[in-house]
Amino acid sequence: MGEDTPLGPLCLRRRELLSDPGTVVTEVTLNHQFLMSSLHNDSERALARVALEMHTGRDLTRASSPFKVTCTAASPLPPKNAPT
Asked: Which end of the chain is more exposed for a tag (fewer CB within 10 A), N or C?
């Protein structure tokens, strides 16, 4: 089950994909609606992009996600010469 919150139950779960045995995904749901998934991580990349755009420090080389996926800090951001 999940933890009850004012917005509904919050649940962190791990499950094996029936369509791809051996592939385990971690998911976060709130009120039975998907918030994040280790399989489809577009929302996580968007959050990382916003956080990195707000970061004013120098020499940032790594970013860590709630699912313990580490990537280079530049990967969620477009190249500097990319059209916006």
From this structure: C
Contacts of 5 (CB under 8 A, 6+ apart): 30
HSE value, Cβ hemisphere, 13 Å, CA-based, for 33? 5
Residue type, 47: L
Q: What is the pLDDT of residues 30-72, one digit of tens each?
A: 999 988 787 877 767 777 778 777 776 666 666 665 554 544 4
Please identify which residue in the block is written with the tokens 């080389």.
61
With beta carbons less than 8 A apart as the criterion, state whether 73 and 62 touch.
yes
CB neighbour class for 30 (10 Å; exposed up to 12, middle 13-18, buried from 19) = middle
- Residue 78 predicted with pLDDT over 80: no
Alpha helices in 1-84 (DSSP H): 42-54
